[in-house]
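Dear Dr. L.,

I hope this message finds you well. Following up on our conversation about the binding site, I have prepared a predicted three-dimensional model of the protein together with calcium ion. For your records, I am including the exact sequence and ligand specification that went into the calculation, followed by the structure tokens. Please feel free to forward this to your student if that is useful.
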Amino acid sequence: MSAEAVRAILKDENKLNQVVKAAFDQVDTDGSGKIDKSELDTVMKIVCKDMGAEPPSHEEVMEVFNHLDTDKSGKIEFKEFKVLIKDVLNSMV
Ligand SMILES: [Ca+2]
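The resulting structure of the complex is given below.
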């Protein structure tokens, strides 16, 4: 994705929501509308494998989870996931 394309997404709330929703649905494998610890664990392992990195430890997964779970509900809701995707997109431009 080009920097211009990323900037266009960040400026357009509807586009951003579409991007976040597409990513969210991939992570939320049971379709519960929330991401739980085991779903995050699975995704982090896949991402690390894709990048050729060591799989994350349980502690690393928990650290990321607790960082994202800002309301401490024990699940990552859409709005919390959106913060993550926005951070990732912002880091690309
Ligand atoms: Ca939460």
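In brief: Residues 3-92 form a domain with the Recoverin; domain 1 fold (CATH 1.10.238.10).

With kind regards,
A. P.
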